[in-house]
Amino acid sequence: MKLAVFDFDSTLMDGETIDFLAKPLGLEEKVASITEKAMAGELDFFESLVERVSLLKGLEYAKAVEICKDLPLMPGAFDLIRELKKQDYKVVCFSGGFRIGTTPAKEKLGLDADFSNILHEKDGVLTGLVGGDMMFGFSKGDMIQRVQAMLGVSQEDTLVAGDGANDVSMFPYAAKKVAFCAKDILKKEANIIVDEKDLTKILDYI
């Protein structure tokens, strides 16, 4: 058995979940500029996540769920995952984003698991608070070690792919480190670089 771990936002999905959620509030540009800095490693991931989610306060939860049901998947996502499964990979998603986005994608793509954060809601609206498995810059590195131990998968048999600063922490635990349409901070740590929005390009290296 082998393990493939993918980031969600701007890797498996074409865009950033939180930017889509900010759109109906008219805050898309404000949120997107914070996201951009966080992914480039210019801001602390935890602080930037808390700040961005606070701007979603007041959004109807049902509206958020509706938006997240139909997020655009990255070109090549279905074909890549189908092929990895044929090659005995367990395929999981780690996201600093939200379960209302990753779980529908997990179902569509046939992923084995998704690990992400929960948007807190009360009385049918978002409170601007967030919690979960992927809150910190180190969270993905922490989680990949736990998943490897649970499945009995070695570093040698692990592939990771992401695009931003909060993906750096999982790179030391994988033999194949894919920077996908990524920020420079991640490219420096990668041994596979794909600069085209087509996930099937990763198959050239497997």
Overview of the molecule:
Strands 4-3-2-1-5-6-7 form a seven-stranded mixed sheet, with helices on both faces. It has eight helices and seven strands; from the N terminus they run βαααααβαββαββαβ. The relative contact order is 0.19. The protein is 36% helix and 23% strand.
Instruction: Summarize model confidence as the mean pLDDT.
Output: 97
- Principal-axes geometry comes out as globular
Q: Determine the number of helices (DSSP H or I, runs of at least 4 residues).
A: 8
Main sheet record:
7 strands, mixed
Q: Walk across the major sheet and give the strand order.
A: 4-3-2-1-5-6-7
Q: What class, by secondary structure content? A: alpha/beta
The radius of gyration computed from the alpha-carbon positions, rounded to a whole number of angstroms, is 16 Å
Query: Helical content, roughly?
Result: 25-40%
- Uncertain segments of ≥5 residues (pLDDT<50)? none
How many strand units?
A: 7
Beta fraction of the residues?
Answer: 15-25%
Q: First CA to last CA: what distance?
A: 14 Å
Order of SSEs: EHHHHHEHEEHEEHE
